Amino acid sequence: MLPQMILAAVGHTPGLSRQQQAGLVPDYLTAPAGNPFVSGWYADPDTEFYEGQYWVFPTSSYAYAEQTYLDAFSSPDLVNWTKHPNILTTKDVKWATEAYYLYFGANDIQEDEDAEGTKVGGIGVAVADRPEGPYVDAIGAPLIGHYYNGAQPIDQDVFIDDDGQAYIYYGGHSHANVAKLNEDMISIGQLDGGNSSGNGTAAAQYKEITPENYTEGSQMMKRNGTYYFMWSEGGWGGPDYSVSYAMADSPLGPFDRKAKILQQDDAVATGSGHHGVIHVPEADIYYIVYHRRPLSETGRDHRVLAYDRMYFNEDGTIAPVQMLVHDNFADGKAIGWKFYGDKVDNWTVAGQQLVGVCKGDGLAMLDTNFTDLVMNATVAVSDGTRERSDVGLVFRATNLGESNGGASGFSLTGPAVFNGYYAGISAAGYVVLGKYGGNNGTMTTLGEGSVSRLQAASNYAMTVTAIGSEIKVYLGNTDTALITATDPTYTSGANGVAVHAAKGVFGNVSVDKPT
């Protein structure tokens, strides 16, 4: 079981006012510069806000033996992220051999190992004088190193209530506990009403709070006086990993399961779970930060970090979270995009736009699989090098790759090819909707249109809708489709952009399901 980190800093300002943040309020529907919002295989993120910076502390998502370090990421605006590598490593926690964090789970101990005393492990704590570390072991041993109430000591979350009392929520193997942390933050206090099958004073220290369907990944937050206990369900290595929650009037529960709020979406990602929550200071704005598995990845450890907006209903319940697809390239990166085409093709990010300069034909694709869809982007095209030089949007694309040439369309040696649909524009005002298929990348035209000659290198809004077999192409801010066609050939696939012997510039790319 991959462990989770949680940070509780003593002596740090927990947050700054909106005025101290120079009026910056990150109010987004999803990660505006795209999910994943940082590069690399990571999972089990926890979050904090310190001195004007949002922090994410994830697990490195590799085999257990390779989890010998902790990285962190910080951002002033939830768009631009700075990586802080190796803020804690094995040299700082001698007893941890497989994974370790701040409040961290280490060594993945199992009940039978613990009973025989053959393996040291559980939940530990490390300390530092600043969020980015370096951290050192605080007590030289696990803080919680045994099973109580059947709960594996992993996946901890530390919550500090309004009165200053700190609680630690944790548990794997389908059992969850809560305990009080003493004022020193490195020892367990007494908790009236506890129950345990353990020894000594455990009955007064650990209370079982296991809700229905609980697997692991405890998380606690408070909003408008209500306590929200959240957790992960399903198996973390599979596609059905998900997040559910309960509400209570007390930090000790009882916690009765309300509903599942985050789960896989066959169009976007699978295995979505084990999360933290970001609350924007002095605003009723919340984001769920979680890991998920890209659609094309099958390895259980191939997980990435994402966040989406989390909304509350009028009665305080949490609305289901929608995993949205959007990239405005404001971070100067194209994380999560894959590129296909001639070796001379050049894809960069500049001026918060994705730029493709292709002597041949090139594709930049997202790892999505939409059926019915609405796709939007700004598109700019410069005159190219051959009669048909255009750029545009690709959708319902499969069999992405490269070929050795063909008759037309994607036809140069080694270009990108795919099966799917393409809507493109040229600087001459030529607009086309076509479908590609076969090894030679031949395009069949489904519809054509024209507009007044476009101003080269100027951005134009382009929208494609595909609902069932009906496809429409819009150019500019209009409700009237420039091209309408019916074709049942391709029903689902990936989304992206394409450049045909030209310079294409793309911005504010989004894909959504029709409402």
TrEMBL record:
Keyword Hydrolase among record annotations: yes
Gene3D superfamilies referenced in this protein's UniProt entry, alphabetically: Exo-inulinase, domain 1, Glycosyl hydrolase domain, family 43
Pfam family, one: Glyco_hydro_43
Keyword Zinc: no
GO molecular function: hydrolase activity
Key words of the record: Carbohydrate metabolism, Glycosidase, Hydrolase
PANTHER family: ENDO-1,4-BETA-XYLANASE, PUTATIVE (AFU_ORTHOLOGUE AFUA_2G04480)-RELATED
Stated family: Belongs to the glycosyl hydrolase 43 family.
Protein's UniProt name: Glycoside hydrolase- family 43
Organism this protein belongs to: Apiospora hydei
Taxon lineage: Eukaryota, Fungi, Dikarya, Ascomycota, Pezizomycotina
